[in-house]
Input
Amino acid sequence: MRLITKGQEPAELTAWKKANPNGRYQDLEGSEQDKLATRRVIRQAAIQEQFGLCAYCCKQIDVDNSSNEHLASQRDDKNRTLDFANIVASCKTPNRCNQKRGSQALPLTPLMPECEIELHFSLSGKVVGTKDRATETINVLALDTPAIRKERQELVDSLIYGVGMTPDALQPPDDELLRILVSDLQQPDEAGYLPPFSPVLISIINRLLANPTDFIN
Output
């Protein structure tokens, strides 16, 4: 996960809520053009503030291959279904993230700063939680299956090779080079998007910089 800072809700959502003071998110599920457009506007705004990454697995997403996801589920918090601060964009990957979670509670969310330090990644693509809530969240979202491990490993490798490094070059580390790499990975492209899974590599590098002797490859 990468910490998400929620911004102001889209003007279209504000206007819809004003015109429908008793409306809830399910009222946007119809087929009328204005309802579909409002849902897409919500999703696009969430994607933009997430720098083009899934709120949970950090896979790259766009408005067509993602869905609006309520951190406090619609079932459990009916009064927040149209609260933009409660909505993020999640990938539609089968049996992962929103598709796996359903309405289960999330003890650790991407709105919590701890989400960036309580999930520990390795170059193999494996992720473990450092606290019970992180472990539970990994299980709820299926963030450590063989499929996503392979996906993370391949993309992390490609990011490393893309800046002229090899995975072996991370040990022993060149601290200055690694810090430059972290800085580069934090810079969005012209569209405002970050590389897919870049928060994973940043997490790995920061752990390595903090304690290279304890780093697990």
Observations:
- Strands lie at 66-70, 87-91, 119-121, 127-129.
- The radius of gyration is 18 Å.
- The chain has seven helices and four strands.
